[in-house]
Amino acid sequence: MSLLLDGVRLRHPSSLLRPGERFANLSEEIFANLLTLYGVDWLYEPLEFPLAWDENGTPTRAFRPDFYLPATGNFIELTILEQRLVTKKNRKVREFRTLYPEVSLQVVYRGDFFALAERHGVSVAALSSRAA
């Protein structure tokens, strides 16, 4: 991803990664860099919320939202999966909201994420082939 400024090719700010940061997929990396571009502080997958427990009280299933925005107290979950996989994630989101109604969670779906990416000159074709 690059931009042209006075004939000089520059990297798009959304492609700049913070040192040492690792993401599960390219869409999370781009989203993190867009948050940084706009000066929004964020944490990547800082908490895991149990959704089910065994008879000993040990968590057996959990949900870990992609981002936490400390300034607003909001969690963000990117859901840009193929439609056949979205149903499973939506089920987890519903369970999460039932068990943790006091926690703010915003879900960003595929169409909204791709529109955001396009507005910033990020190739949706490249994302579509690598989206998770």
Description:
This protein has 132 residues and is an alpha+beta fold. It has one domain (12-130). The chain is 35% helix and 27% strand. It has 4 helices and 8 strands. It has helices at 26-37, 83-99, 110-119, 124-130; strands at 2-5, 8-11, 43-44, 49-53, 59-63, 67-69, 74-79, 104-109. It has a 4-stranded mixed β-sheet. It has a two-stranded antiparallel sheet with strand order 1-2. Strands 4-5 form a two-stranded antiparallel ribbon. The longest helix is centred in the C-terminal third of the chain and has 17 residues, at 83-99. The chain is globular. 15% of the residues are buried. The model is unreliable at 1-19 (pLDDT under 50).
Query: How are the strands ordered across the major sheet?
Result: 3-6-7-8
The helicity comes to 25-40%
How many helices does DSSP assign? 4
Return the average pLDDT rounded to an integer.
82
Shape: globular
What distance lies between the first and last C-alpha atoms, to the nearest angstrom? Answer: 19 Å
Helix/strand-derived class? alpha+beta
What is the chain-wise order of helices and strands? Answer: EEHEEEEEHEHH
**What does the main sheet amount to?**
4 strands, mixed
Q: What is the beta-strand fraction?
A: 25-35%
Rg to the nearest angstrom? 17 Å
SS elements, strand count = 8
Question: Any idea how many domains?
Answer: 1
